[in-house]
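Record 1 of the preview.
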Amino acid sequence: MLIASWIFGVSFAACLYVYAGYPALLLLLARLRPRPVRRASVQPTLSVVIPAFNEQDVIREKIEATFANGYPVERLEVIVASDGSTDDTNEIVRRLEGERVRLLALPRSGKVAALNAAASVARGEILVFTDADVSLDPGALSRLVSNFADPAVGGVTGRKAQGADAGGGAIGRGEGLYTRFDEWQKRLESLIGSTISAHGALHGIRRELYRPVADGSGADDMAISMRVVLQERRLVYEPDAVARVETPAGARAEFRRKVRVANQAMRALAGIGPALWTSGFYSLELISHKLLRYVVPVFLMAMLVTNALLALDGRTAWQLMLRLQLAFYGAAALGLLLDGRGRSRFRRLLTVPCYFCTVNAAALVALLSLIVGRRAGTWTPGGGFHGAGATARARYAVTPLSVEKVS
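->
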């Protein structure tokens, strides 16, 4: 029983560190040694890279919205890296091509290859990456770029937010809570020095810091942005540069997405090799914020199994702990069962256990898939621009002349 209690204690401590200890450490360091970013209204030339695969329903609106975002048009170019699109995506972009809009009609090779190709021909001082089905709040580009006034800054990530049509199910609510917690940690990491990585919805780096990514199965946003920090430049978080993403489509779809994301993220971490362990405080951030978080389900299973063994000796404390664990997992199962069946305060109380277990179950599946060598399938983004073109035009007040006037 001594070994079982030791395993339980280590597993419990690891989970506590991931969700409480590490955030507390960030909060302490942010108070003791903050490193504010020097922001200013600067206007470097931008190359906005939009990877696309069969995005005919949204690509025109995305391009027009980019030019209508408020950044000086004469300092902006848009590169659509079409990864073997088989619909009308290429033809739509060709009709808009000119000095400010460029199409790369590429063979189907994956998102990473498309980004590498776009970066190799970009002319802007700053490369900005954003997905076709992501909508940017007005002024997001200018707010993102303002951080590059600080010469120590090599990369900037915006804030990912759910669209205005966010659903009210347990998965949608849980995603919102998790996103806010994760963005809060990124804000603290950025204040200390560098946040761990960017996300594909909206991020930018200095063009000279872009390093082609070799492994197409890893998370492209992580692979690109982590290498900024490894080149001894800061990667900072800009909460006012908002990118709105689509609401999770439901528990099953969200579970599959999280398995894919976790698999790709772990491959991206492995892709930087020894730097994962030898990069000082940045290594601590990567291990604490990413790597350990994906290993949490292993710790949770160890806690449950060892707790069950320890409860056999009849001690009240171990039996109480086991009941609490079983009650938590039962609440998660009930929340998943009732998800989407109306709204009530009781169902909202089940949001945290339901989402927590969904996320960690997905991480476990991703970890197992990584062990057996399975890679995420070919990149196939979901269509949709929060209600397609009409919504995009209404949100940004885009007119059909936006692109033609600057091409």
